[in-house]
Amino acid sequence: MRLKIIGSAAGGGFPQWNCNHSLSRAARAGNPGVTPRTQSSLAASPDGQGWVLFNASPDIRQQIAATPELQPQADAPLRSTPIRAVVLTNGDVDHVAGLLSLREREPFALYGTSEVLDVIAGNSIFNVLDPAIVPRRILPLNEAVSLRDADGEDTGLAVESFAVPGKIALYLEDSSDPNADFGSDSGDTIGVKISQRDRDESAAFYIPGCARVDAALKQRLADAACLLFDGTLYTDDEMIAAGVGPKTGQRMGHISMSGDSGAVASLADVAIGRRVFVHINNTNPVLDENSPEHARVRAAGWEIAHDGMELNL
Length: 313
Ligand code: MLT
Ligand code: MN
Hints:
binds D-malate, 25% strand, alpha/beta, binds manganese (II) ion, 8 helices, seven-stranded mixed sheet, Metallo-beta-lactamase, Chain A
């Protein structure tokens, strides 16, 4: 199975369009060790021919332009795509807005939990993807499902989805309730185990949003070949400390890399083949390869995803 991380930044990308924080400035200036990144998305393929996208980011057009495998092949019909299906892990803007760029009456299958597909159905702009051409299929939780393309052909990949502690999408929050935390662990945000038929031992877990690591998640991840995990923030109050916003990571539904209950410490005693941080926010100091935080995370056995990073399992 081939995995390509086509977008490794969190919502906003890196640099973010309106961000004047030192990291975004360094990325814009082309400083060595500070590499720009597009917004969160993963492509997976059993054979390098047909591909399944996990999330469709606002940068999808740029991501396809940077990824020849996702472009129409030379001998393919005049209008075609190797993208057979898109799986959504939540309804956040950085994970669904790219669907609008996949219009043009091109068949592929769209998968999500019933919560997330309800959000898509509730917003008529997504009807640019006519459900007669882009069928919407509910992903049941805790059940392995063979992913099929729009015509029902098996893509060769299976996913098992599971709810993780997270949050409803920002644009669904009710701003009239200042004390609500909008936390959710019932299917608004999911992780997925991606595997190739009969190759369960080389499955990868993709969890770009997760508020905390609990015992159930640790158990699920034990002996995984590969984990691509929420690397939004290094510290919970990082955005407040940087002066760019009032929210903690917990308020946004994201665990931090550091700290006693952070991802590095919480997963330290779980046997995982490769552990890679994805969905990295533009305030996270690990984005600077020369930072002590980057060195610490690498020393703890984690990789920091960059756009175009490929994993073969
Ligand atoms: C998130 O990951 O928390 C969201 O992408 C934030 C957003 O929608 O801007
Ligand atoms: Mn996001």
